[in-house]
Design goal:
single chain; alpha+beta; seven-stranded mixed beta sheet; 5 helices
Length: 181
Amino acid sequence: MAEDRPDAGTGRVVLRRMTERDVPFTVALRNEQDTGRWFFKTEKLTVEGSTRWFRGRDPATDWDFIAERDGEPVGYIAIYAVDLVRGIGEFGGWMIVPSARGSDVADQMGRALIAEAKAAGLVWLHSLGRLANERSARACAKVGFHIEPFPEEGTFLATLNPQTGVGGPEAEPVGFGPQRG
């Protein structure tokens, strides 16, 4: 019960690992018009297809989180393709329920994700986003990600070393090297 949680009533956002019971929430959020239009694949998701995806993913390399505030789900965020040997991962899927947009939920989610990455020993997080999605670029920058245009037309690259709080080409691990053009 939410009342039993130490964060209940604080307004603080906490991340927890996604479970199969969260699939309908994430599908509804992803299919919401102002969310879904910013993904590179914009087709509508189904609960059935997303349940198959969830069951087939590898939780060791795909870390899916539900953000909760006062025990209620307010968003989803993930780190994909986690490579603990190299210490890298790709973050994405940053989605927030419409009623929480414009609050500090995005900041809290981003900072919580960085803390998860840091605790796991990751030294590099990266993501591609659409340049037209200024809200996403601002949210990334606000929590410390370095934002730069990416050669693929209309995209930006967000990068950060969770251990140092520094991003950008100068902070990039040796051998990571996304093609910058």
